[in-house]
Specification:
By secondary structure, the protein is an all-alpha fold. Helices cover 58% and strands 0% of the residues. The chain has two helices and no strands. α1 runs antiparallel to α2.
């Protein structure tokens, strides 16, 4: 999930920099791929948040880093 988020977060502006800045306009349609990766990662985070057990929320540390769901 973290890989999808990072790919989407950096892929979208990256293709604009490369496409417009360096004339590699053939990369511009891959924006749908990077945008899709970002949307999927956010949906996974939403699902994990909504299906979490509310009774144990905030009672003790989970031992998992917040970015690695």
């Amino acid at each position: 999930m973290t890989v999808l988020f990072i790919a989407g977060q950096w892929g979208i502006p990256g293709i604009v920099w490369l496409g417009e800045g360096f004339g590699l306009t053939f990369l511009m349609p891959t924006g749908f791929l990077w945008g899709g990766a970002l949307i999927v990662s956010m949906l996974i985070m939403l699902y994990a948040t909504l299906t979490r057990d509310a009774s144990t929320s905030g009672t003790e540390p989970t031992g998992v880093a917040p970015s690695d769901d």
